[in-house]
């Protein structure tokens, strides 16, 4: 099912129905891992997604790992078919060959995945960064190199088979934020909006935003999108603060402006991870509550492959209850799962 249909159904509901969704990054296998160990890691990942999805997630998505493309494709397929949750696979194109892009799309399709988040991605190591605004066809070979290119390519090759989403940046794409500044220039911000509209007009169904902590940026972004004619749903991306290290890494990588009060509280609590996580959960709860109060009925959580922070927020919002049984969880042990990777999560949050 196309995810946009679920979003549309929620907006037509008279009971203020809220839909929520979860993002995961593709687990990384140690180079020395045996086939058995790799299978255990994959099964533990699927078990976690199943447990969380059973709380009523409208969809789940999985980030693209170019160096482990087959792993991402296979896990996306398992999420769709074994768990039965509508799954959106991320796909980045920068640095990939046309054949690699097509094999990824075909692989998702053959596994029953019918939703893709089309992204530009990061340039290959050692290559110069490209501007976020229309770096289309810069390689002269007609290979997609940005989100707009990829949307156009998927629509041309697969018609309406896939439901497509694209990334939106309430503070503008990080490339639009000059060194030494914590905000984009007005011109850069407007250019980024124009580029976003082109991605939507090319055939994208909805927008998922980058993380933010200053609520005014998000609400202004929504208003500005409507001002220039972007009418599709805009789904806010929420990242609960769970540790000082991850907070520092994510906000630095994504060039996220953090309100002074939040920054000072995080600094004050950084030596007490339990207190910091509790603060992060309450902050995310308050943010979500304000978003819902403003009439937006969709919430998308960057889980960083961790269960409890996101579920704690949803419980406080009254959207899930504690103690539910999970009907279809694979009988595997969580011990086989990889250690949390902050760097992996950060890398997958910023593609254009």
Write up this protein.
- With 352 residues, the chain is of the alpha/beta class.
- The chain has one domain (3-340): TIM Barrel, CATH 3.20.20.
- It contains 12 helices and 8 strands.
- It has helices at 3-12, 35-53, 69-83, 98-110, 147-158, 186-201, 215-227, 244-253, 260-269, 273-293, 308-316, 342-347, and strands at 19-24, 59-62, 87-92, 115-119, 163-168, 206-211, 234-238, 298-302.
- It has an 8-stranded parallel β-barrel with strand order 1-2-3-4-5-6-7-8, surrounded by 7 helices.
- Helix 2 links the parallel strand 1 and strand 2.
- Helix 5 runs parallel beside helix 6.
- The longest helix has 21 residues, at 273-293.
- InterPro entries: FAD-linked_oxidoreductase-like, Mehydrof_redctse-like.
- This is Methylenetetrahydrofolate reductase.
- GO terms for molecular function: FAD binding; methylenetetrahydrofolate reductase [NAD(P)H] activity.
- Keywords: FAD, Flavoprotein, Oxidoreductase.
In brief, what are we looking at here?
The protein has 352 residues and is an alpha/beta fold. The chain contains twelve helices and eight strands.
Strand content is 5-15%
Number of helices: 12
Give the CA-CA distance, first to last residue: 25 Å
Q: pLDDT average, as an integer?
A: 88
- By CATH reckoning, the class would read Alpha Beta
The global form is globular
**Low-confidence spans:** 130-140, 323-341
């Amino acid at each position: 099912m196309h995810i946009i249909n679920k979003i549309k159904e929620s907006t037509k509901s008279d009971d203020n129905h809220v839909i929520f969704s979860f993002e995961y990054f593709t687990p990384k296998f140690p180079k020395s891992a045996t086939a058995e160990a790799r299978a255990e890691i994959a099964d533990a990942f699927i078990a976690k997604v199943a447990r969380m999805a059973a709380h009523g997630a409208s969809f789940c998505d999985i980030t693209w790992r170019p160096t482990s493309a087959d792993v991402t494709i296979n896990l996306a397929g398992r999420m769709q078919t074994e768990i039965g949750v509508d799954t959106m696979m991320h796909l980045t194109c920068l640095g990939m060959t046309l054949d690699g892009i097509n094999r990824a799309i075909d692989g998702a399709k053959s596994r029953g995945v019918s939703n893709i988040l089309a992204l530009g991605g990061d340039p290959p190591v050692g290559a110069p960064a490209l501007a976020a605004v229309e770096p289309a066809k810069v390689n002269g070979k007609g290979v997609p190199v940005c989100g707009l290119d990829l949307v156009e390519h998927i629509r041309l090759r697969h018609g309406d088979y896939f439901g497509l989403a694209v990334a939106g940046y309430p503070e503008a794409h990080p490339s639009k934020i000059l060194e030494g500044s914590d905000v984009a220039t007005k011109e850069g911000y407007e250019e980024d909006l124009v580029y976003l509209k082109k991605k939507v007009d090319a055939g994208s169904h909805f927008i998922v935003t980058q993380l933010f902590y200053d609520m005014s940026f998000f609400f202004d972004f929504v208003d500005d999108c409507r001002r220039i004619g972007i009418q599709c749903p805009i789904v806010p991306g929420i990242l609960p603060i769970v540790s000082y290290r991850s907070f520092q890494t994510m906000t630095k990588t994504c060039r996220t402006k953090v309100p002074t009060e939040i920054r000072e509280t995080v600094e004050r609590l950084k030596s007490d991870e339990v207190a910091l996580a509790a603060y992060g959960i309450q902050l995310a709860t308050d943010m979500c509550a304000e978003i819902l109060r403003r009439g937006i009925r969709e919430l998308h959580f960057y889980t960083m492959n961790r269960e409890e922070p996101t579920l704690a927020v949803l419980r406080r919002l009254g959207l899930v209850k504690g103690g539910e049984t999970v009907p279809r969880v694979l009988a595997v042990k969580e011990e086989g799962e990889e250690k949390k990777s902050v760097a992996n999560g950060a890398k997958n949050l910023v593609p254009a």
